[in-house]
Amino acid sequence: MNDALKATLAPTLKSWIESANDPRSDFPIQNLPFGVFSDAVNERPRAGVAIGDWIVDLAALKDARLIDAHGTFSEPRLNAFIALGRESWRAVRVALSALLARDTPTLRDDAALRRRALVPRETATMHLPVEIPGYADFYSSKEHATNVGSMFRDPKNALLPNWSEMPIAYNGRASSVVVSGTPVRRPNGQLKLPDEPRPIFGACRKLDIELETGFIVGQGNALGEPIPCEEAEAHIFGMVLLNDWSARDIQQWEYVPLGPFNSKTFATTISPWIVTLDALEPFRTATPAQEPEPLAYLRHAGDHAFDIELSVDLRPEGAATATTISRTNFKLMYWSMAQQLAHHTVSGCNTRVGDLLGSGTISGPTPDSCGSLLEATWNGQRPVRLEEGGERAFLQDGDEITLRGWCQGEGYRVGFGECVGRILPARSLT
Ligand code: CA
């Protein structure tokens, strides 16, 4: 990391956009996450960066010749920009940081340019930030894997022998990844009721969330050319929050022997702002100790976890107050993102710009730090209480789930914003 890039991370840095200096804002000048937005004035989706309560319109700044990325900012997805490579992402970050810094007059004192280049975030519509060619979902939280293994197999042997040797994953469905705010329809599917010889077809009765993060591949690899673990982080553009909606009853019946299918493919929600690994650099920390030592292709020196606080809120339809049903931290994850990407490609599998890799459900060691209702309620046996009365074993129609994530700095925080989804009733079967 060069000096210009390091300077964009200084905790003392302030912006002339005052809302960015609020210590509670997810989007201080140290963050500068990328997304795609439109608004009533200009309905064309285009690239933007969040700063305080505003979005910087990158296409407008390009037209004013203040930044450059070969016209990619006018496109409705970030893939072409990301494909320019890490030096280009970093050049834009450095230029934006300088432009938005308190003492830089270029944009600050040009009212006409400000009107073109700044859009209030509350008036904007956010879009899926990248075209996602492929999506894989991991299973990298030891606490989560232990909880699920204890519940459905054997508490004494909760982890299968392969779990501590490799980041376990399956290939998910990219076509149904949606941006925060998109409603999620309860799926219908095969349900196998206890004591019945055959399944019935009907609406999922055990609809659940999975609190995850995901990362976006910024530089792919050619078929047959694995990405070494030590180099893997350079291939990552940034991170998002991810809710891997799960139909537990459909899953339990279908998952043997090839894993989840209909129970996971109906929707996966991601947050709209991609927080770059550069912005997360000050929050780098050690991953939990790995025992046994991983095979050589999964080894990397140094710190590869990130200290990201996470929370899940549930708000029933019509309720004024949401209930926080979980608080946990990304740094608990056993396998790092670098190890996940190295493992994904070690067979020679190619990845492409925009590919999404989910962390797997992130659970802590206590019931109030579980990343799914399955674990928090122990498969529905001990429902969670809600602030305004009532309880939940699994999600009901109209429930709204909000994931949040942020790195706490001194006097500022680098946040992810929100990842929201509300449950719609299942399609009628008649
Ligand atoms: Ca998952």
Q: Tell me the CATH superfamily of the largest domain.
A: Fumarylacetoacetase-like, C-terminal domain
**Alpha carbon gap, first and last residue:** 60 Å
Whole-number total of structural domains: 2
Work out the strand percent: 25-35%
The structure class reads alpha+beta
Mean pLDDT: 97
What is the overall number of helices? Answer: 12
Could you name the ranges where pLDDT drops below 50 across 5 or more consecutive residues?
Answer: none
Proper CATH architecture of the largest domain? Alpha-Beta Complex
Q: What would you call the shape? A: globular
Helical residue percent?
10-25%
Biggest sheet overview: 8 strands, mixed
Each distinct ligand: calcium ion
Broad CATH class of the largest domain: Alpha Beta
Assembly type of the chains comes to single chain
CATH-assigned fold name of the largest domain: Fumarylacetoacetate hydrolase, domain 2
- How many β strands by DSSP? 26
Rg from Cα: 22 Å
Provide an overview of this structure.
By secondary structure, this protein is of the alpha+beta class. It has 2 domains: 125 residues, Roll (SH3 type barrels), CATH 2.30.30.230; 290 residues, Fumarylacetoacetate hydrolase, domain 2 (Alpha-Beta Complex). The protein is built from 12 helices and 26 strands. The strands form 7 sheets. Strands 6, 7, 8, 13, 14, 16, 17 and 22 form an 8-stranded mixed sheet that branches. A 5-stranded antiparallel sheet has the order 4-3-2-1-5. Strands 9-26-25-20-21 form a 5-stranded mixed sheet, with no helix packed on it. β1 and β2 form a beta hairpin. The longest helix is centred in the first third of the chain and has 15 residues. It is globular. The model has no long low-confidence stretch (mean pLDDT 97). It binds calcium ion. Calcium ion binds next to loops.
